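User: Predict the structure for this protein chain, please.
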Amino acid sequence: MNFQQLTVFYSTVTSAMHYYYFILAVLAVWRITHLLSNEDGPFDIVFRLRRALGNSFFGRLIDCFYCLSIWVSLPFAVWLQKHIVEMFVTWLAISGAACLLQKAVEQKKPPTTQFYEEEEQK
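Assistant: Here is the predicted structure, written as structure tokens:
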């Protein structure tokens, strides 16, 4: 294997690792955000945290999956990218992918039908 082939192989492996880390970041952001916004956590720790935060800014933030995913994804974007522009785009991409994953797994409520009964004509 000559130097040029080795360079191509290395760049391919490095590129694949970036995708791997991005997917890991998306899954981690979804899991952390879902835990904080939709679950009680072990020993009701997250429930107690949400109750303690109440109706404050952070209390309202932790109740919204989509809002919270933006802030949870920020450290992952900083971890993945070195340049500020790439970091910003990756930040939004990770949050957006976590939101799409949430939409895919959330349970859809069946539409409610209203019961209507006509009066009998005499």
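The longest helix spans residues 3-38.
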